[in-house]
Amino acid sequence: MAGQREEMAGQREEMAGQREEMAGQREKAMRSQVGKARLKAALIKSTAAQLREANERLVVATVRAQTMADAAEQTTVQMAYMAEHDFLTGLPNRALLSDRLAQSITLARRYGKKVALMYLDIDHFKHINDSLGHAVGDRLLQSVAKRLQACIRLSDTVSRQGGDEFVVLLTEVEDAQSAILSAEKLIEAMAHPCLVNGHRLHATLSIGISLYPDDGKDAEAIIRNADTAMYQAKKSGRNKYMMFTPTMNDRAVTRQSIEQALHRALEKQEFVLHYQPKVSLDTGTITGAEALIRWQRPRHRLVSPKQFVSIAEECGLILPIGKWVLHEACRQAQDWLQAGLDLGQIAVNVSPMEFHGKNFLSGVREILNDTGLDPRHLELELTESGLMQDSEQTAATLLALKHLGVQIAVDDFGTGYSSLSYLRNFRIDTLKIDKSFVQDIDGDAGEAIVRAIIAMGMSLKQRVVAEGIETQHQLAFLQSHNCKEGQGYYWGRPVPAEEFATLLAGKTFKC
Ligand SMILES: Nc1nc2c(ncn2[C@@H]2O[C@H](COP(=O)(O)O[C@H]3[C@@H](O)[C@H](n4cnc5c(=O)[nH]c(N)nc54)O[C@@H]3COP(=O)(O)O)[C@@H](O)[C@H]2O)c(=O)[nH]1
């Protein structure tokens, strides 16, 4: 029994050992399972984190891509807008206008309708820009743009062509009269001054109108003819509209042929100078001569400067022509002086474009050196509008001329679009009373203006020369008001150099 008990206890022990061993194995297995599970969990966690991170990156990238796509689209829209609109005024530009005009013409052709095109230019805009600065000029353009837009229907177009030029397209008009009504509305819209940076600016418009199909069969002809009509509106006094007429084109063709002929005239030396005396109203002696250009055009009569100087100014040919005039006048004056003739001063007309050209001053110096003329014998005649441009540069050029010893005269005094402050700022030697005032001496207004200019010149210690004296009555009036010098047909028209030499040599004029 005891043996049996021992054996049973042994068996129990063995079983317990086996149980322990099994428990140990189970624990080991469990630990290993837990370890694996933990590992798996860690793996899952890290994978999830990686996925999350990747997903976030993907989201960020997607958002970025979308933002870039939006920005690209916005830029494309902006660029398309900018390509078709004017930056300063926001109006359709030349390209968009051409497009709309072409479309309107196509529709008008199909439905038998009319289209009107108005070419607009702000009168004297350059003066405003030059005297008050570009910032004021820009604001004025914006203000004009708004007024124009307020006058037209939504289906019509106001565009800015550049500078101070605008084009208005009226897509459906019954006849010329409806276009004229619109032009009158635009002119009326400018009747009140524009307030810009404290300035009250009176901007007026010159408008040229052409109609499809009456004045042209395609967009190009319609624009060109409206531009031609606008040019005529400017020439005939500004602040008005003009309908295109075919004779305007004849004038444009004539202008074109004069321009071409002027090139040849320069090459072939077809220009000559005539001289008109300036006369002392006290003694009748010659105090100087004004050099005036004429054109000996082959197979034509002597051509007056009125017929070609403005064309030469528009196409830039006035620069070489003006240089020739200055050289020839100085050469001739020096010849007379060397021949012992008492010339006084030779006066030469200078166009604003020449005066403001970058080589003007050096050109004057060069010509004086070349001809040997003492600068004191040279007087340059400038118009008020020429003096009003770019006042700093003008002051510097005038000062340099004064240092050289050259005299400065204001031509056509009283007719310019200017303020009188330049008389204080620039040292002007001579005021030339415009002939329109002298010829108006018989009327009260003319007399008052002439008296005022003489008085102003005297108090500013300037010489005053009355231009365009034709009658004894005008002469007597000027003498009685102490005007010291004059010029005009009363003594004679401008004459060629040889005739002028005879005048210089001999005679004293009656006065
Ligand atoms: N830039 C340049 N302009 C020039 C030059 N030469 C002339 N001109 C300008 O052309 C305009 C016309 O000149 P012109 O036909 O020579 O007429 C001048 C005189 O003949 C005329 N005049 C003179 N006296 C009288 C008169 O008693 N009555 C009358 N009706 N006309 C008269 O006036 C013109 C001179 O004018 P101004 O120069 O304003 O003193 C004219 O604008 C010229 O300036 C040139 O070389 N360069």
Layout of SSEs?
Blueprint: H1 2-84, H2 94-111, E1 114-122, H3 125-132, H4 134-151, E2 157-162, E3 165-173, H5 176-189, E4 194-196, E5 199-201, E6 205-212, H6 219-235, E7 240-243, H7 246-267, E8 271-280, E9 286-295, H8 309-315, H9 318-338, E10 345-349, H10 352-355, H11 360-371, E11 378-383, H12 384-388, H13 391-404, E12 407-413, H14 421-425, E13 430-433, H15 435-438, H16 444-459, E14 463-466, H17 472-480, E15 485-486, E16 495-496, H18 497-505
Helix pairs in contact: 3-4, 9-11
The site of ligand LFPHGCPZ has 22 residues, from strand 9, helix 9 and strand 12.
Describe the protein's architecture and organization:
This protein folds into 2 domains: 94-244, 2-Layer Sandwich (Alpha-Beta Plaits); 253-505, TIM Barrel (Alpha-Beta Barrel). 56% of the residues lie in helices and 18% in strands. It is built from 18 helices and 16 strands. The chain has helices at residues 2-84, 94-111, 125-132, 134-151, 176-189, 219-235, 246-267, 309-315, 318-338, 352-355, 360-371, 384-388, 391-404, 421-425, 435-438, 444-459, 472-480, 497-505; strands spanning 114-122, 157-162, 165-173, 194-196, 199-201, 205-212, 240-243, 271-280, 286-295, 345-349, 378-383, 407-413, 430-433, 463-466, 485-486, 495-496. The protein is elongated and about 180 Å long. One of its GO terms (molecular function) is cyclic-guanylate-specific phosphodiesterase activity. It catalyses: 3',3'-c-di-GMP + H2O = 5'-phosphoguanylyl(3'->5')guanosine + H(+). Residues 1-29 are annotated as: Disordered.
